[in-house]
User: Which sequence fits this backbone?
């Protein structure tokens, strides 16, 4: 990818205008004001999922995506300070690119790698090649988590159903006639 040139939002709009015309400026402004995909996701009349924001962002030229990423990284560091921002670094392609971009602006920014015990040895070896990476190891192994809590729900559909059920139970809990339980242990609470 080479060196990353640092620009502000106004310069990004000027570049977009020169390369892609007035519509690009409108698009960048629209994207900046767009809600997150989770907020933007919903069902249309015919039952299809509406994720326009994601599709628009995916269609942007790479240079604009990189510059938008730089602007967001700067905003985080401006708000939290360099010592309050970490890059979550899994050793995969996406987090490697993000770490490269972040360190092109802030060379001393820390990265965090969570070693769950399930990573391939090649991933661990790759992560070891980077400086200034904090390694975290969970207190419980994956096997211990499964033995203690059961296998995690993977499906987003299942997670949405669970969220809906919790919301329904919360509404029911406002009634004095229902027994309330702790959601982690299912023990009855007062």
Assistant:
């Amino acid at each position: 990818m080479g060196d990353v040139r640092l620009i502000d939002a106004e310069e990004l709009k000027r570049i977009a205008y020169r390369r892609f015309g007035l519509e690009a400026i409108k698009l960048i402004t629209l994207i900046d004001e767009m809600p997150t995909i989770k907020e933007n996701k919903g069902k249309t009349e015919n039952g299809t999922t509406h994720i326009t924001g994601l599709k628009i962002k995916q269609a942007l030229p790479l240079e604009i995506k990189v510059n938008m990423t730089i602007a967001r990284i700067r905003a985080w560091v401006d708000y939290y300070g360099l010592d309050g921002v970490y890059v979550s670094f899994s050793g995969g392609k996406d987090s490697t690119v993000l770490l490269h971009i972040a360190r092109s602006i802030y060379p001393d920014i820390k990265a965090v790698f969570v070693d769950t015990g399930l990573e391939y040895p090649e991933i661990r070896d790759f992560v070891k090649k980077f400086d200034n990476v904090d390694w975290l190891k969970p207190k419980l192994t994956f096997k211990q988590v499964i033995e203690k809590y059961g296998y995690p729900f993977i499906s987003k559909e299942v997670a949405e159903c669970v969220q809906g059920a919790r919301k329904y139970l919360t509404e029911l809990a406002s009634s004095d006639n229902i027994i309330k339980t702790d959601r982690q242990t299912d023990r009855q609470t007062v």
Notes: The radius of gyration is 22 Å. Confidence is low (pLDDT under 50) at residues 35-41, 45-50. The first helix runs from residue 9 to 20.
